[in-house]
Write a structure and sequence with these properties.
This protein is of the alpha+beta class and 622 residues long. It contains 19 helices and 30 strands. Helix content is 32%, strand content 24%. Bound molecules: zinc ion. Zinc ion binds next to loops.
């Protein structure tokens, strides 16, 4: 009951109209006195507050991420002062874990706090002696009612850091000095990551568009120029899919790369930039890094501007759930390898393998029996957060919307080409989505005025295919439903074969095993559509014998299985988690995992019709 009373109070505060107008603004100042200890001092002055309480917030979520992160956890030493009243310290109330409310003030408040950050990826904050890597929601307090207030941001060179001065790379608008920037409103500000460090900058233009690649890395700069040339090839190839580039708000698009041994692997899209982090270097994982480039850059259309309605505008106070991630992330996942191939940066074998991964997971993962692609998208607030403390059964109930959506994109592209003899393609579909939902833009910078729903996405397919019944059927079966398209036939038209990776090999399931002296310990949930599951064993059981042979490791289990054939029955002896010894029998199956291989690499030959189909699909579209 108290909770509801409290909620009503907060709602009343929110509902108070504020006389902000043009007078409200925010000025942020960031200093790093002790970079070696991974914290930053933030000072933010809110002007034009009016008479109502100032409700300051740390975000609970971050655009492009779908789980709750509760960034307030790293904020401490919070003080508020009133600059108009001789710096008098103001009383701060805590309405909830992410809020700091200042009831009495003189209309201008400066909030001062420290924020800790030591995780380099697309979501969090990282401060060390080599750089400040900043995802805004992880670092800055914002205020309710200041959605349209412009902000200025000023960075100070860090203390005690040797070497050349740090520079800022960001999609924020440039300000009065090279360390000052502006944002027109909250949505744009929060979408604008900052890399402040000894970055190396390269630039190129395509038509009237300018692109910047800002890299903070420990590799040699000699590797950089060829890498940036490849980035440009990807940018050109993806531009050809849509026929044009978006109007980048600050006039440029910026790739922000942290390739550092102490970085976590990630890619995070923004309107006019992307953050790409990896512990690898250009030398050690060039193909992997380019894969992230191809994925993230595709997002400057798909998700940043062709945007699901549920994400627009983004709500920093909660997990943002949408049923459209199969399109926003999945179609992007599909186009990454397609663009790499068209740009000449991936071989036929590599591309076939990437497509094979998509086909394999929707064919073999048990989750498809339970949830559609829309339903899987709605799991993002849980699965996008990574590990949980309690155990989950996601192995059996969830397929990531990345490969699930990627498999739908593959199905739709090939189906459109198949039924139109190559005249209509998924590229046409993406262009239609762009024309209707992305290109019209937003009345305010950082906003999208015509976001889409699944029904809109279906309507665009009806237009592009000229067949509303086909569009409805496709969405009902493969997006809202849980059916599987005939990949063997469709890929066959392009001269690809879907074949078993380990044909004829005995298999009892992809059972995760840890080696132990007393046996082979089952370290995770056993997939439900496997012989091992049918035999009754599961997580925390310890396999002791299989087919009469003692086993203590995954290798030992595989060695024993390799001496048997699919269809054979073998006896297993195991100890369950309570210590009881048990015996069961397993009927071995054939390993069901599939790969996609060019027909000519599988011992066949490519027909002229297949070659034409494949070339139209995978050759450069420029
Ligand atoms: Zn993505």
């Amino acid at each position: 009951m108290r909770k509801y009373l409290w909620l009503a109070t907060v709602m009343a505060l929110v509902a108070v109209p504020r006389p902000y107008g043009a007078a409200s603004s925010i000025a942020y100042r960031f200093t790093i006195p002790e970079p070696q200890h991974h914290w930053m001092q933030v000072e933010a002055t809110f002007t034009g507050i009016g008479a109502a309480p100032l409700e300051l917030r740390m975000s609970r979520s971050s655009p492009g991420r779908y789980a709750i992160h509760d960034f307030a956890k790293n904020v401490y030493d919070v003080h508020a002062v009133d600059k108009d009243q001789d710096g008098r310290e103001l009383i701060i109330a805590r309405p909830d874990p992410s809020g700091w409310t200042i009831g009495r003030h003189g209309g201008t408040v400066t909030i001062k706090y420290k924020v800790y950050g030591d995780h380099i990826d697309g979501t969090y904050l990282a401060i060390d002696t080599t750089h400040l890597h900043m995802n805004m929601p992880a670092a800055i307090m914002w205020a309710r009612g200041f959605d349209d207030a412009p902000a200025t941001l000023a960075f100070a060179q860090p203390s005690g850091v040797a070497g050349r001065a740090w520079t800022v790379a960001t999609q924020l608008h440039p300000g009065a000095t090279s360390l000052e920037f502006t944002a027109p409103n909250l949505q744009y500000l929060m979408d604008s990551p900052v890399e402040f460090g000894p970055t190396v900058l390269r630039q190129f233009t395509v038509g009237s568009r300018a692109f910047r690649v800002a890299i903070h890395h420990t590799g040699a700069n000699a590797e950089l120029d060829r890498f940036v040339q490849d980035v440009e090839r990807v940018v050109r190839e993806e531009g050809a899919i849509y026929g044009e580039y978006p109007e980048y708000d600050p006039g440029t698009y910026t790739f922000l790369a942290d390739y550092l041994p102490y970085a976590d692997g990630d890619g995070m899209e923004h309107r006019n930039s992307t953050v790409m982090t990896s512990s690898a270097s250009i030398l050690s994982d060039r193909a992997g890094l380019l894969g992230t480039v191809a994925h993230e850059f595709f997002h400057c259309w798909n998700v940043e501007r062709i945007r699901p309605r549920d994400l627009e505008p983004f709500d920093f106070d909660r997990a943002n759930m949408t049923g459209e991630l199969w399109l926003a992330e999945g179609f992007t996942q599909y186009y990454g390898p397609i663009a790499l191939h068209r740009a000449g940066l991936a071989s036929l074998a590599e591309t076939g393998h990437a497509l094979g991964d998509l086909v394999d997971i929707v064919t073999n993962a048990p989750g498809r029996a339970l949830r559609s692609a829309e339903d899987m998208s709605r799991m993002a607030p849980f699965v996008d957060g990574g590990r949980t403390i309690d155990r989950t059964n996601w192995t059996n109930t969830v397929i990531s919307y990345y490969p699930f959506g990627g498999a739908i994109a593959l199905a739709l592209d090939l189906t459109l080409r198949d039924r139109s003899d190559g005249r209509t393609t998924l590229d046409d579909y993406m262009r239609a989505m762009w024309r209707v939902h992305g290109k019209p833009g937003g009345s305010r910078e950082g906003y999208v005025d015509r976001p889409y729903t699944t029904d809109d996405a279906q309507a665009r397919l009806a237009e592009v295919s000229g067949d509303a019944a086909f569009a409805r059927d496709f969405f009902d079966r493969y997006v809202r439903g849980r059916e599987l398209v005939d990949y063997v036939r469709l890929l066959g038209r392009a001269g690809f074969v879907v074949r078993k990776r380990q044909a004829g090999r005995a298999w009892w399931g992809d059972v995760p095993i840890d080696s132990r002296s007393d046996g082979a310990h089952l370290a995770a949930v056993v997939p439900s559509n496997t012989p091992a599951y049918a035999a009754g064993i599961d997580q925390d059981d310890t396999l002791v014998q299989i087919a009469g042979e003692r086993v203590t490791s995954l290798e030992a289990v595989n060695t024993v299985l390799s001496r048997h054939r699919p269809g054979e029955r073998v006896t297993i002896v195991y100890i369950d988690r309570a210590g009881a010894s048990k015996t069961a029998s397993v009927v071995l199956a054939e390993n069901p995992h599939v790969d996609v291989v060019a027909v000519e690499a599988a011992g066949g030959s490519l027909t002229p019709a297949q070659r034409t189909f494949r070339d139209r699909w995978l050759k450069s579209q420029q």
